[in-house]
Amino acid sequence: MSQIDAPPKQQNGSTTSVHYLSGTHWDREWYRPLQEFRLLLVQLVDELLDLMESNPAFKYFHLDGQTCVLQDYIEIRPENRDRLAALIREGRILVGPWFTMPDLFCVGEEALVRNLLLGRRVAREWGVEPMPVGFTCDMFGHPSQMPQLFAGFDMRHCVVGRGTNEHTTPMFFQWESPDGSQVFSFKLQDAMGYGAFAVPRAVLEKPTAVLDELPEFTRAMEQAGDDDKKRTAVREKWFRERLAHYVNHELERSNGKTIALMDWMDHIMPASDVKRYLRLIHETRDDVQAEHSTLPTFLADAERTAHDVPVRSGELREPSRDANGGYLWLIPNCVSSRVRLKQANDACQNLLEKWVEPMLAIVKLRGTEFAPRLLRTAWEHVLLNHAHDSICGCSIDQVHRDMMYRYDQARILAEQLRAQAVGVLTQGCRELGRTPDEFTLTLVNPLPQARREVVVFDVDFPLDYPEQFTEGFRSQPIKSFTLEDASGTAVPYQRLSMIPQLGERSRHALPCFQSEGKLTRYTVAAEVDLPAMGFTNLRVVPSKRPVRRMGSLRTAPSRAENEHLIVEIAPNGTLTLIDKQTDQTYTDLLGFDDRSEIGDGWFHGHALNDEQALSHACSAQVSVVHEGPDVVSFQVALTMQLPARYDWHEQRPVDERVSLGLSHVITLRRGAKLVEVATTIDNTAEDHRLQLLLPTDAREATTYVAHHPYDVVERSIALDSETVDWREAEIAEKPFLGLQAVGAGQRGLALLSAAGLHEGGVRDDARRTMQVTLLRSFRRTVGTEGEQDGLESGRTEHRYALMPFAGQLPAVDALQALASLQAGIFTRQSGKRASGFPPLAGEADPRQSFMTHSGELVVSAIKSAEQGDELVVRLWNPGAESAEGTLTFADEVKAARRLKLHEEVDDDAPSPQIRERSVRVSVAPHKIATVGVSL
């Protein structure tokens, strides 16, 4: 009887359980495009099905913690669906928990939840629950709240790798979120991570893969000649030696009596002879008991036998220390690679999360439901792009071109779903227009906070609109109209710009309908009361008299002031910002820092022979592009002379110079507590990195804060000097989602990004300079001699805002301001240029609010339940004290309950308090709360 067939050894204090785990790390796209990898995936699954059906000893295989590969396979092999489903239902092929294994810093908080929700849904469509392990084997660091996310999906265990070192983190530890949620975590080894079994396996199956590293093995194989028995003996001898090295290392670093041998290398085909592997494992050491196993079984066993298990709190972002850690790199600069991808991703997420899901949920509550598969399709296109080698921008150009197609599909579908939902929600309202030339303009606010502020919106007119005026005899004709609310009260507005003739397809799609023809579009600004998560209607009325506004926020040629802020443009194009509430002045804002870039999608690197260019001595041209009592906008244009490219032979920037065009449009609105900036880059240079500089002069600050999934993390400004001789030194550039801030005493400055900017930090200088990476222009891509798309040639634009504050960041206010910046507003109108929207044909109130949130919580999701008719609202508490929030609805609340993130009831959470149309929720510090409401 062989060892593998023998009864299990009696476990005692000297015996270690060894779980041999079969799987493959399947990068859906990376150094090959999707369709090339799919061809290989089909081969792998074909082989896997034959193997598992014919060989019961090959018990288990893991499809890398994601379910998207199931559809990738079935689209090519529909005839094999039943075979695959049978093995999945038997528990032999493990799928999930993710839909696609994402990067954890480049995508948003709700996108992570949607990913797990979709992974769960797909697994259930195949007849099983998803693998209950937070599998993050190849992420480039881990955010602080991942244990709470995993706990919200009933996962007690997880696998982590990058962002931890063996000298700081044992094999097993408890990872704790800021709220106290914990998951029992398995740390992959530094040297080979999840692929450590590949080396010994290569000796048996593919010896050519290790010939260069093992010359003694090569000589032994040559001495064996053509004798198959001798060659097999040589291979097994060397397998045992390589395996012993692996096993001994795992035993040395283990703080338990359980280890895993992970046969899980990238795109690896399944090993066929499991019995042989288990026999050789037992021959390697006599103090182990090995079995072909699964991750859930291994982690349950490990948790039971582990000892001296430490608790690690917060984000895991340690640089790699040791050069022998071939797998272990933190890889910190992906968040600044290919900014156009990041912008497209953020735009799609904002559309889906802040517009489409809330609007479709309200429409459903009012009796109209769009095909659910439409929303799912939009999300699938976005989530497929969230794979860590995709959204990180570290793949070949073809991969990222394919991603832009998927983003386009998601955006087009999301925009149309928004338009259709707004049409349904507003069509029952009363038409405010009283004559054929009057019409109703609807302004929609998707956020659950009422907003009285100056907003910018478009008004469209037929070319033959009846009223217009001119300034003098021969100046430009201007459409003459007034705005008023439903009660007839005038709404003053400021004209910003005009397109005299514009043709476009209707924004609201209709069968056999394209558009109403050419139009004239005016962009205006007006202070409007916007109901919370609702809309208000204005009447547009032709005026026989000229319509003008007097006054301006501009107080000097390059200076403007509102109730809270003063802005002034310096001759070199930098911004001076004065906070009138604290009497603090911020100078030299919006400068640029440019240096060489010789890195790739993973890492920024600059040359030793570097030239670091600063914009602070440039001269700027300042223009006033909008001026009036509601809005003032200055345009600041400057040019930097930069090296045209990097000379890879001489290893220095070339002497040739090109002109890099840079401009800001700096906008101050009446009543605003922040200043908005749109920065445009006309990139003509190659091989360089451009950063935005924001000196804050918060000189006493030792830390700063950055927004991450469901958290505002605090980070040290000073870099860890211990890492100076590590493989990777700590760098100032670090990831953030949409917000970062630094403050001390009466000084504080926050940057809020509308989309695409995710790499920032604060320099450890005297001025506490906040930095943001605007672009990295690189040509190196994996496995190529260099490609063009990563050079980021041409024009990019970034929108963001600067918000001063005193000392400690008011996190809730700042995050609400961020949501407002990202969401904006949406308009529709009736009349002759309704753009396909249905006529207003009812008597409903022209001003409606569907839901309002008040309190010290942040609302991150409003959506229909995954199952049933509940409205799901997710809130989170960024503070260190318990906080409350109140949700008030247009309809009476029938029931409310606390849910887990997967939207099943959470019996451990305090029940919401219901009173007529309101639900009150109490949320512990740093906690995420999901509420299901029945109306």
Automatic annotation (TrEMBL):
SMART domains reported in the protein's UniProt record: Alpha-mann_mid
All copies of domain Glycoside hydrolase family 38 central, residue ranges: 336-407
Pfam family, one: Alpha-mann_mid
Keyword NAD: no
InterPro entries in alphabetical order: Gal_mutarotase_sf_dom (IPR011013), GH38_C (IPR041147), Glyco_hydro/deAcase_b/a-brl (IPR011330), Glyco_hydro_38_C (IPR011682), Glyco_hydro_38_cen (IPR015341), Glyco_hydro_38_cen_sf (IPR037094), Glyco_hydro_38_N (IPR000602), Glyco_hydro_38_N_sf (IPR027291)
SUPFAM superfamilies reported for this sequence: Families 57/38 glycoside transferase middle domain, Galactose mutarotase-like, Glycoside hydrolase/deacetylase
An example Gene Ontology molecular-function term: hydrolase activity
Record keywords, A-Z: Glycosidase, Hydrolase, Metal-binding
Keyword Hydrolase appears in the UniProt entry: yes
Family membership noted in the UniProt record: Belongs to the glycosyl hydrolase 38 family.
Protein name, UniProt field: Glycoside hydrolase family 38 C-terminal domain-containing protein
Organism: Natronomicrosphaera hydrolytica
